[in-house]
Structures are given as C-alpha cells and as structure tokens.
Specification:
With 148 residues, this protein is of the alpha+beta class. It is built from 4 helices and 5 strands; from the N terminus they run H-E-E-E-H-H-H-E-E.
C-alpha cells in the first residue's frame, strides 16, 4: 500500500514538474529566438520572459547576434554598457538610452559560462530601467513608465 501511495505522489510530482517546465520554456526568451524591439519581463529565476509592450514590462531587447572571436574578446575588456553600445548596427535610440544612464544593460548568452562567451554563442543585449520602474511601450516611444 505504501508503495502505491509513494508511486502516485512521485507520478503527480513528475507531471507537475513537466507541466511547469513546459510553461516556463514557452515563455522564456531564448537567445536564438530573441528579436530587437521585443519587450520582456524577468521571472523569479532572473531569466527574460516574453511580455506585451502594451502592458508594463521590465525591459526591451536592443541587439541580437552571435559572438565572433573579436566580440568574445571585447566582452571581457569593457562594461556591458560599453559592449552593447559599441555593437554594429545598434539603433541610435538604444545607444542614446544606454548613454543616458537611465537603463541597466544586460547581456543574455547561451554560453555555458555567461561571463566567458565563446565564438558561435548566441546572445542578446537588453535594457531595464535603473530605477526599477516598469516600461510601458517601447524605449523611445515616450509613453512613459508605470508610476512615473
């Protein structure tokens, strides 16, 4: 009898965990799938998740790409803000947002060690307000912030 109860509890826990993993995986913004201008929130694991730009959200993806040797070397030598601000093709609006100091710059990478990316690793840069307020709309839309 005890074996049956333990088996049922383990099965229910496994199904619940699987459902949780599927839901979390479907909401996560993966490096290879991120898009410039995509609005994001941050989940309890400190991972970026999909968000609507029309609703209050934590930040916005500003650049998406793949590390080459030069970018991987540069990543170690400068701050995240300098790294992202210096990426080729970065929109002027995003560069201005970085330079304003109003945003915290984060880099998400699929490398095994995010502090030491390698050539071929996918990554994206995103901005979050430094004051912790949520964004409404996209950066540069002048729609303001929640609670501003």
């Amino acid at each position: 009898m005890t074996g049956l109860v333990v088996g049922i509890v383990v099965t229910v826990a496994a199904v619940a965990f699987l459902a949780f993993a599927v839901v979390m995986g479907s909401r996560t913004v993966w490096e290879r799938d991120a898009e410039v201008g995509q609005c994001i929130d941050i989940d309890f694991l400190d991972d970026p998740i999909k968000a609507s730009c029309a609703e209050p959200h934590a930040g916005e993806v500003i650049w998406v790409g793949r590390f080459d040797s030069a970018l991987a070397d540069r990543f170690d030598d400068v701050s995240r803000a300098e790294f992202c601000a210096g990426l080729p093709g970065l929109e002027a609006t995003y560069r201005s947002a970085i330079e304003s100091g109003d945003y915290f710059v984060r880099v998400e990478s699929d490398s095994l060690d995010e502090s030491e990316p390698k050539r071929g690793d996918d990554f994206f840069c995103h901005l979050e307000r430094r004051d912790g307020k949520k964004l409404v709309g996209r950066i540069g839309d002048d729609l303001g912030t929640e609670g501003a």
